[in-house]
Amino acid sequence: xxxxxxxxxxxxxxxxxxxxxxxxxxxxxxxxxxxxxxxxxxxxxxxxxxxxxxxxxxxxxxxxxxxxxxxxxxxxxxxxxxxxxxxxxxxxxxxxxxxxxxxxxxxxxxxxxxxxxxxxxxxxxxxxxxxxxxxxxxxxxxxxxxxxxxxxxxxxxxxxxxxxxxxxxxxxxxxxxxxxxxxxxxxxxxxxxxxxxxxxxxxxxxxxxxxxxxxxxxxxxxxxxxxxxxxxxxxxxxxxxxxxxxxxxxxxxxxxxxxxxxxxxxxxxxxxxxxxxxxxxxxxxxxxxxxxxxxxxxxxxxxxxxxxxxxxxxxxxxxxxxxxxxxxx
Length: 329
Ligand code: 2RA
Description:
By secondary structure, this protein is an alpha/beta fold. The protein has helices at residues 11-22, 55-60, 72-84, 107-110, 126-142, 160-171, 201-213, 248-256, 275-278, 309-325, and strands at residues 2-6, 29-33, 42-45, 48-51, 65-68, 88-91, 103-104, 120-122, 144-154, 220-228, 234-242, 261-263, 284-291, 298-305.
């Protein structure tokens, strides 16, 4: 399979290369694209050096699949150009996620909706992916009415500049700021930009993308997204109100039987998910599962995943694997 990675030198792009190698993805040709200033730069993959090329060159090479992680503007301009050349685009940016004609895919939930005609496919936001993977089986069995989620997001989700700001602050070095405030020893209730309704774009992604992926606009979702100084991994405190009641152990059993989900839930021995242990893994980890005693038919849980892997690179590559396995590319 001839595959292009658009944004190959970014944090997600680098993880994409790592995941492609780990999963022994059947590549016949690899095309690496980054910003103009990186053209000509050499990147090693499985012992072979690849030269970074421009977007123009990449589209002319007609890859069968293009994995995008280069920001919304690049996706808006270039995804249609690759699609017109016959390439199937799988995009990590927010550019196409809420487009009515584009599918928003978490393979374990809705890959079966994909067809050969889907030439631009959106991968959801990292904090959405880890939450909906858990919500999907629960919605099917108990019918979700409302979700209240608070996220605790690694600075790796912001990008290299924020990681560098945290490293500098921890080393006591004054450097370039990705945020208007310190990250070290702080918690910033500010992920992405603020919208007119007082929520951030990050929070509204959790609202809108969840309803689209679960194909149910009646699910009420409200979110607060917080940036914390962890090196990698997003954590979420999730409160879910169902139409019907549930048995706690049935919920644990259902989630433990869900592809891509691992239940870590035994407070007798301090077993619960933590980002430091989710780092580098592709599963979504769930724990602290307990009934919300303040309201009927309602449950609390803690959901953790590596935001650069299942939250981005791995989900994208799993979509590509599904397309190949089902002869859709
Ligand atoms: C963040 N969800 O964590 C975004 C990923 N770009 O900031």
